[in-house]
Amino acid sequence: FKMALPNVVFVLGGPGAGKGTQCQNIVQQFGYVHLSAGDLLREERRKEGSEVGALIESHIKAGSIVPVEITCGLLENAMKENMKSDRYDFLIDGFPRNKDNLDGWNRQMGGKANLQFVLFFDCSEEVCVERCLHRGAAGSGRSDDNPDSLKRRIVTYNESTRPIIEHYDASSMVKKIDASGSPDQVFAEVKKLFTKS
Ligand code: UP5
Ligand code: MG
């Protein structure tokens, strides 16, 4: 008797590429559980007495990446909670973002999850930045939706996250979607992937 392993789709793409928006659509139509690493970190930061709150906030504002022990721990806990109620299909949004994340995931979760594929939302820097600034101006309350943080988020994405996407692409795990269209246009492409697999 062997316990079933959870299925995981990593969802990657630049800041504002539309990862969260499309994950919500996938949840509605395909019954996955959406775990945004960024959302989990922001929630942890808000917890009273959280020892890592200040550390998380300093990374978010600087657009740098929180040590994997923290992020992977939050992800594993959230997965375990959901599996208690028989939810085994996960969209892990915004992770792994760098080599530390990738190595940490493989160490901690490598044998405990079945990676289905990597969903990559491809979007130009200009469009990414514009979407985040627009969201900031509309009152997102996110401490990183400002021009200075965005510059850093883009640099981190290009220097640290793109190599992770390339790493998975080398083993044909990446499914790339053009994320520059309207949310409906993008979802039409996303749907095809989930209907097939
Ligand atoms: N929007 C969405 N789709 C659109 C479309 N097709 N056309 C027009 N507008 C569209 O969308 C962003 C905005 O654009 C929204 O206003 C939306 O309505 C609109 P969203 O769906 O939120 O995009 P998303 O890709 O999720 O953007 P997000 O800002 O969340 O991306 P990031 O990857 O930058 O943010 P995340 O929350 O993942 O991470 C934030 C920080 O947390 C990181 O910089 C890092 O410091 C830290 N972090 C870690 O350290 N480790 C992790 O593992 C994860 C995060
Ligand atoms: Mg997001």
TrEMBL record:
Gene3D superfamilies tied to this protein: P-loop containing nucleotide triphosphate hydrolases (3.40.50.300)
Binding-site list for a ribonucleoside 5'-phosphate: R42, S64, I65, V66, G94, F95, P96, R97, R142, R153
Enzyme class label: transferase
Region (NMPbind): 36-66
PROSITE patterns: ADENYLATE_KINASE
Predominant place of localization: cytoplasm
Binding site residues for ATP: G16, A17, G18, K19, G20, T21, R135, G181
GO cellular component, one term: cytoplasm
Keyword field: ATP-binding, Cytoplasm, Kinase, Nucleotide-binding, Nucleus, Pyrimidine biosynthesis, Transferase
Cofactor binding note from Swiss-Prot or TrEMBL: Binds 1 Mg(2+) ion per monomer.
Keyword ATP-binding set for record: yes
GO molecular function ontology, one term from the record: nucleoside monophosphate kinase activity
Keyword set includes Transferase: yes
Catalytic activity from the UniProt record: UMP + ATP = UDP + ADP; CMP + ATP = CDP + ADP; dCMP + ATP = dCDP + ADP
InterPro entries recorded: Adenylat/UMP-CMP_kin (IPR000850), Adenylat_kinase_CS (IPR033690), P-loop_NTPase (IPR027417), UMP_CMP_kinase (IPR006266)
EC number of the protein: 2.7.4.14
Location in or out of the cell: Cytoplasm; Nucleus
Binding site for CMP: N101
Cofactor(s) annotated in UniProt: Mg(2+)
Subunit structure of this chain's protein: Monomer.
PANTHER family: NUCLEOTIDE KINASE
Function summary: Catalyzes the reversible transfer of the terminal phosphate group between ATP and AMP. Plays an important role in cellular energy homeostasis and in adenine nucleotide metabolism. Catalyzes the phosphorylation of pyrimidine nucleoside monophosphates at the expense of ATP. Plays an important role in de novo pyrimidine nucleotide biosynthesis. Has preference for UMP and CMP as phosphate acceptors.
Protein's UniProt name: UMP-CMP kinase
Organism (species): Capitella teleta
